[in-house]
Amino acid sequence: MINNEKYNELIKYIKGLGKVVLAFSGGVDSTFLLRVAKEALGDNVKAVTIMSPYIPKWEIVEAKELAKKLGVQHEIIEAPIIDSIKFNPEDRCYLCKTAVFGMILAVAKDQDYNYVIDGTNFDDISDYRPGLKALKELEIKSPLLECKVTKAEIRAFSKELGLNTWDISQHTHVF
User: What's the pTM?
Assistant: First the structure.
């Protein structure tokens, strides 16, 4: 356990959500958030990963291994390429996030979870992220953003927690 004011605030925020489904890619942010959610909620957290033709297979394998290592229930949803993004429209990020998070929300609703959370962090709001509009419309909770946790802090906390995702060079890709 980390003794840090911001970390403790994050734990408290997540505890207040009760029972959550985390949109889990297996990347730096979502792995850290999954670890913290497990600490805060125990078995009241579930990871959901989207498997689609545009996501490399090794990322799915890695997400599966990370969820297992953290002792968290994990579900993989197979999703085709969404018709509305096939021809690469300008608003593809918004359309894709709306569709993908709609699928994750359905899992949460069907299995009696209170919220869907994602790994959007405080630094993400300074980037151009059209998908954030979809998250807001769907009422997805972003604990790292809400608690103003930056990418540098996520990496530092992840290192302290022993998560190999803190450093991209530590990833082992399975092809």
Answer: 0.91
